[in-house]
Task: structure prediction
Amino acid sequence: MKTFSKPRNHSSHFTLTTTLALVTCFGAFVYFAGVPNHPPGFYIDESSIAYNAYLVSETARDEHGQRLRLYFRAFGDYKNPTYIYLRAGLFKLTGPGITGARLLSAALGLAAGGS
Result:
């Protein structure tokens, strides 16, 4: 026995897609608006990664003088090199700064949530 479904209404599908896209864009805007000031202050892990990224962007060496490390040693543990090299590239383009560093983290977090 065959059952027939109603034909899809393309305008309602377009409206739903558009609404979801607008809500997502608004959420991203609100998310990014608070990034530079939250959390207040500049914490030790943030500063360690930012300092290594700055040094890599300027000299291709980390805080211990090692050239183009696979892992960055800081405070008794090792930091992810991918993130430090991404931030170094950002610092090369924009110069070092807390806002740029935090916006990169926010964008990567948003991209991870979207995938």
